[in-house]
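As a warm-up, study this chain.
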Amino acid sequence: MAKKQTAGRDNLGDFAPKFAELNDDVLFGEVWSREAQLSAHDRSLITVASLMTQGVPQLKDHMRIAKQNGVTKDEMVELITHLAFYTGWPKAWSAFGIAKDLYQE
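Now compare it with the structure written out below.
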């Protein structure tokens, strides 16, 4: 089961309470908890792939979550290698930098 997420409330609870509630309770509470339909491992792979294609800062956080959800170094390397041809070489280089640091911890 996915870990209870509080990042929304921790970071934006006072500033944007409704957004924080939707982030923690709907996205991570309801959607990520549907593990009978799709495992947290697979949701992490999909999320990392999506964020990599967009080149957004949240990629690092979701790679960390992916590792916690059992995504192996080899799976992450394969995901990035595969997407390099679809999303662009520079984004792959950036993603590899994050993954290398994360999986060497």
